[in-house]
Amino acid sequence: MLPALAIKEAEVPALSESVFMPYFRENFMTGVMKSQHGGDIWYARSKTDGGAGAVVIVDGRTEYMAKYSEVLYDLRDSGYTFYIFDHRGQGESSRLLEDPQKGYVKHFDEYVDDLHLFLDTVVNVQNQKRVILLSHSMGGTISILHERKYPGTVSGIILCSPMFSINTSPFPGIVARGLSRFLRFAGFGTRYVPDGGPYDPSNDFEDNDLTDSFARYELNRKRLVENPRLSLGSPTITWLDEAITAIYRIRDDTSPIRVPLLLMVGADDTVVGHTQQKKFCSLQPDCTLVVLAHGKHELLMEKDQVRDIVLQKIKNFLNQ
C-alpha cells in the first residue's frame, strides 16, 4: 500500500474548516464568466501562477467548487496553476429552471462550449506551457467531447470514473434512451426523471453508491446542509436524454485521441460501471487504464487506500 499522501480520513472532519477551506479561500480568487449560451459561470483560480502549466478541474453532476478543497490542498505542491468552475445549472453558477433543484441542460454541447470559452478566456490556454484537464464523471464526458470538437487544445486528460455509460436502473439503457426521448418531446422534459426529486440530506451513508469514505460523504452532506443553494437534486428528463446521447456519441466515434489519457475507474462503481470505459481506453493510442479495487464512483473522495493511489497516479501524470 502506498503511504498516505495527505491528511488522513480520520482527520478530515476536524480539519476541513481549519485547513482545506482556509487554504482554498486564501490561495484562490473567484470570478464570473458570462456564457455564450446565457447565464453566469462562477470559477476559482490559484492566485499564484505555477511554472508547470495549468490544471483545470472539470467536475461531475451536482458538484461544486468547495467540494474539491481537499483535492486542491493535496495537489498544492505540484507546480501547476489550478482552475475550477461550476457547470451551468449547479453550484454557484446560474440555475436554468425555476426550480433550482432540477438538474437540467438544454443541449449537452453547452457544457462543452462553456469549457472551451473558459480555457480560452480565463485559463488563456495559448499562453500556458501545458494544460491538463482533471475530470470526474460527467466532466469526463465533457472533456472528451471537447477534445473531439477542439482537438489539441489541451496537453492531456485525466478521467476519473468518466460517464461513458450510465446506470438507468430499473430500465435497460436502450429502453431508457427511447423513453427519455419520447417523454422529452411529449413535453415532459423539465420534469424530474422517474422517482427523482430534490436533494435529500437525510439519505443514509449505508445506501450511497458514491464512496466508502464515511468522513468525506458526511463532510459533503454537512456543506450542503449549511449551504443549500449549492445542492442539486435529480436530473430532468431532458438532462438524461442529452447525457445518453452524449455517451453514444463517444461510443460511436472510434477515431484516436492524440493527447495522453489517464483513465481511472473503481471496480465497485455502480453509477457508470467500467466496461465501456475499458473499451474506450483500449481504442486510444496513449491511454493508461487503472482499475481501483474496492473503489466506488467518487475516486477523489474515497477511502485513503483508494484515494492515495489515485492521487499518486495524478501526480505522476502531471510530472510526465
* Average pLDDT rating: 95
Poorly predicted segments: none
The CATH class designation is: Alpha Beta
Count of helical segments?
A: 9
Work out the strand percent. 15-25%
Domain count: the total is 1
Strand order of the largest sheet: 1-2-4-3-5-6-7-8
CATH architecture term: 3-Layer(aba) Sandwich
- Specify the overall morphology: globular
Structural class by sheet pairing and helices? alpha/beta
What percent of residues adopt helix (DSSP H or I)? Answer: 25-40%
CATH topology: Rossmann fold
Oligomer: single chain
Q: What is the element string, with H for helices and E for strands? A: HEEEHEHEHEHHHEHEH
Give the number of DSSP strands. Answer: 8
Give structural notes.
The chain has one domain (9-318): Rossmann fold (3-Layer(aba) Sandwich). The protein is 37% helix and 15% strand. It contains nine helices and eight strands. β1 and β2 (40-46) form a beta hairpin. It is globular and about 50 Å long. The protein starts with 11 loop residues before the first helix and ends with a helix.
